[in-house]
Amino acid sequence: MTKSTTYLPKRALAAAVLAASGLMAAAGAHAESLDAIVKAVKFDDIADIGKQLKAGKLDPNTLAPNGDPLLVIAAREKSDKVAAALAATPNVDLEKEDKAGENALMLASLNGDAGLVKLLIDKGAEVSKKGWAPLHYAATNGHDDVVKILLDHDAYIDTASPNGTTPLMMAARGNHASTVNLLLDQGADPQVKNQLGITALEFAKHYNAPDAIEILSKRTVRVGASAPADAQKSAK
């Protein structure tokens, strides 16, 4: 009678256990190594990260245990030296996003990190990203210098988020008077509405942003009043 094949010989079973233990140990070592890499990125340890990149031991597109790309972490933490080294690596994906859909240029814009914004754009990062764009992020925190950089590189000024929100609305929401003026001066349309039918002025009112309310009240009326005047001219 043939023995059941469900029972492994003792040697084979021992080998399987050892192999599994080896795999678990290797996985644990990899996790520790990855944690060390993420820590080095967060603390802008260019000596460590630069050495690994130069030796080809570190893929610049590596994901942290939580799924964040290393370049995104560097941008978020303002680790500019490490970010520059990662961005300079030939096979890096500048558009790689975290789970929230944010890439390095977006977070550099949010932080007002003008130097990194310029560097990423020079390396080919996409300025006019569909959906939430770097210009939304710069306007959210009132970073006029970054707004100017993005507009100088052809960022669409009335770019709409998935729900139709524009950079002007975000600047108004945060009561960033200089940013509101800058965007209006550069051609932002204050009469654009999002999917809820809300304009930048209504954003400002909802979030109790007095400076933005004053600016938009005057300049929205001015824009609205220009249409009838133009119509009268064309009718003559």
TrEMBL record:
Keyword vocabulary terms for this entry: ANK repeat, Signal
Gene3D superfamilies: Ankyrin repeat-containing domain
SMART domains: ANK
ANK repeat locations: 100-132, 130-162, 163-195
Organism: Burkholderia vietnamiensis
Key word DNA damage present: no
Name of the protein in question: Ankyrin repeat domain-containing protein
Domain of life: Bacteria
Family matches, as InterPro entries: Ankyrin_rpt (IPR002110), Ankyrin_rpt-contain_sf (IPR036770)
Signal sequence interval, chain numbering: 1-31
